[in-house]
Write a structure and sequence with these properties.
It is a single chain. A three-stranded parallel sheet has the order 1-2-3, sandwiched between helices. Helix 3 packs parallel to helix 6. The protein is mainly alpha-helical. The protein has one domain: SGNH hydrolase (Rossmann fold, 3-Layer(aba) Sandwich), CATH 3.40.50. 42% of the residues lie in helices and 7% in strands.
């Protein structure tokens, strides 16, 4: 699960890069606008509930060996009014769902890599939606790392490898997709071996 840039000029988003570099089969469940929160978006609809989406995805596909979760950017939109702690709690709920005996048993057990999105920047076309939460987004890596430690899952801070584009302040450019895809592939190869 993750929020991926579906811009037509980005032919190889990071999950595709990752799958090719790691030599794994990929099931993409990206949906632009999806929230980590257990509720929908008042502007985009109830189907943006990431927790419901995760349950559906894990019931629809499989078996899987590893799942990546990279959500939280859309939760930073000003109209949601979320704190960093609230967003981290939503992400914790996602990991908790994935770790349930029912879902782990259905897939024969699988690893989880929790990826914290890079910080948003106060620039670009979405500046009005996100500027007030630039500081909040910078607090997320430490909180996501705590979630990963508490739940005994793997962790990566995407912001240690890439930055959000200054064109819109939240998505990634072509080079960033390549860099992140390779970084995730390197970590996944270590997890699966």
């Amino acid at each position: 699960m993750g929020s991926f840039d579906h811009h037509p000029r980005i032919a190889r988003r990071w999950p595709v890069v990752m799958a090719q570099a790691a030599g794994v089969n990929l099931i993409e469940e990206g949906l632009g606008g999806r929230l980590a929160a257990g509720h929908g978006d008042p502007n985009m609809g109830a189907h943006m509930d990431g927790q419901l989406g995760l349950r559906i995805a894990l019931a629809s596909h499989g078996p899987i060996d590893l799942m990546t979760i990279m959500l939280g950017t859309n939760d930073l939109q000003a109209h949601h009014g979320k704190t960093a702690a609230q967003i981290a709690a939503h992400v914790d709920a996602l990991v908790k769902i994935a770790l349930t005996d029912e879902l782990q048993d259905r897939h024969g057990g699988f690893e989880i890599l929790l990826i914290c999105p890079p910080a948003v920047i106060g620039a670009g076309v979405f500046v009005a939606d996100f500027t007030d939460n630039v500081r909040v987004s910078r607090a997320l890596p430490a909180l996501y790392a705590r979630v990963a430690t508490r739940r005994a899952v793997h962790f990566m801070d995407a912001g240690a490898h890439i930055a959000s584009s200054d064109i819109d302040g939240i998505h990634f450019d072509k080079v960033a997709h390549e860099v992140l895809g390779q970084a995730v592939a390197d970590q996944i190869k270590g997890i699966l071996t």
